[in-house]
Amino acid sequence: MSAAAAPNSAQQSKSTPSDFLRTIRGRPVTVRLTTGVDYRGVLVQIDGYMNVALEGCEEWNGTQLKAKYGDAFLRGNNVLYISATSGAK
């Protein structure tokens, strides 16, 4: 087989974190902070510093709902990870 053979499926489906973040805009997400607290809401905006704007935001500590916020801004240096979630919060 020549070196010019078609790339395998793993090579064809390469995506970057930026690609992922573009696809989840407008969808429900969970944002975990470095403190261990989760914020769940609809991802409105994210910038290069990982600053996150959420709509319909809820603060969760483990399985317990702590607070509900309309809109929230989470500073990027506190973000541990962002995860896409199902439609139900």
Automatic annotation (TrEMBL):
Cross-referenced CDD domains, in alphabetical order?
LSm6
List the residue ranges of the region (Disordered): 1-21
**Could you tell me which PROSITE patterns the record lists for this protein?**
SM (PS52002)
For this protein, the record's InterPro entries field holds: Lsm6/sSmF, LSM_dom_sf, Sm, Sm_dom_euk/arc
Give the top-rank taxon of the lineage listed in the UniProt record for this protein: Eukaryota
Gene Ontology BP term (one): mRNA splicing, via spliceosome
Where in the sequence does UniProt note compositional bias of the Low complexity kind? 1-15
Give any Gene Ontology cellular component.
nucleolus
Q: Where is the Sm domain?
A: 16-88
Q: Say if the entry is tagged with keyword Ligase.
A: no
Instruction: State whether keyword rRNA processing applies.
Output: yes
Q: Which UniProt keywords apply?
A: Cytoplasm, mRNA processing, mRNA splicing, Nucleus, Ribonucleoprotein, RNA-binding, rRNA processing, Spliceosome, tRNA processing
Coiled-coil ranges per the record?
Answer: none
Query: Can you provide one Gene Ontology molecular function annotated for this UniProt record?
Result: RNA binding
Q: Where in the cell is it found?
A: Cytoplasm; Nucleus
Family from the record:
Belongs to the snRNP Sm proteins family. SmF/LSm6 subfamily.
User: What name does the UniProt record give this protein?
Assistant: U4/U6-U5 snRNP complex subunit lsm6
User: Source species, please?
Assistant: Pycnococcus provasolii
